[in-house]
Amino acid sequence: MKKLIIASTSTVHGSGYLEYILPPLSTFFKEVKTILFIPYARPGGISYDDYTEIAKKAFNKIDKRVIGIHEFENPKEAIKQAEGIFTGGGNTFELVNQLYKNDIVDTLKETVDSGTPYLGTSAGSNICGVTMMNTNDMPIVYPPSFKTLGLIPFNINAHYLDPIKGSTHMGETRETRIKEYHVFNETAVLGLREGSWLEVKGESIVLKGNLTARLFKKDKTPVELEANKEINNWF
């Protein structure tokens, strides 16, 4: 049975890296001693080593060891042997590019589908969807495909933002951009607000946190999904 936590962000305002979600992660990774970290998205272009250190410090608070996938000669085997996996945020285009470059897309999907606990934040959550096409990131590289892991039957728009009342900004809102996506695509999109995450156990998907999530379907009025309830029946 697959087990995932798919979080909108790694850091919420006023707290440290992963701090807001460490209590549920302690339970989620209860049987895991060492977590394999995939740092390919590397926010701000930081090195894999530096990014892995950030993850190590966070997980040390719940007595978990972290090792970066880049430290292994064979990333496929590292994934197959992993007790638990964490893919961090950053640039989704670069993350997907490196997953294809290292030929580990299928291996990662198969490993998580078979029950290895998986945590994704931001870009690491975007890749859980059918495609990465609802990322907010700049296309700094061009991956071979936008197809991602398909661990859930919809796409994620992480860091979803509602329009600010009274704002003079004339650019497109997130909702507008998702509607543009649905002119050409059928896949549903879930806007995950900051501090929200999905807990996936087999076919069950529960929205966690204190906020609703906004569901977009082609040619349908967007719907607010309530927190702490199963949402899989919407897809």
UniProtKB/TrEMBL annotation:
SUPFAM superfamilies noted in UniProt: Class I glutamine amidotransferase-like (SSF52317)
Q: Which keywords has UniProt assigned to this entry?
A: Dipeptidase, Hydrolase, Protease, Serine protease
The source's superkingdom equals Bacteria
Gene Ontology MF annotations: dipeptidase activity; serine-type peptidase activity
Please state what class of enzyme this protein is. hydrolase
What GO biological process term is on the record, naming one? Answer: proteolysis
Report whether Aminoacyl-tRNA synthetase shows up as a keyword of the record: no
The record's section on Gene3D superfamilies has: 3.40.50.880
* EC number(s) stated in the UniProt entry for this protein: 3.4.13.21
Q: Does the keyword Protein transport apply?
A: no
Its family? Belongs to the peptidase S51 family.
UniProt cross-references to NCBIfam families, sorted A to Z: PRK05282.1 (NF003642)
UniProt name for this protein: Dipeptidase PepE
Q: Which organism is it from?
A: Tenacibaculum pelagium
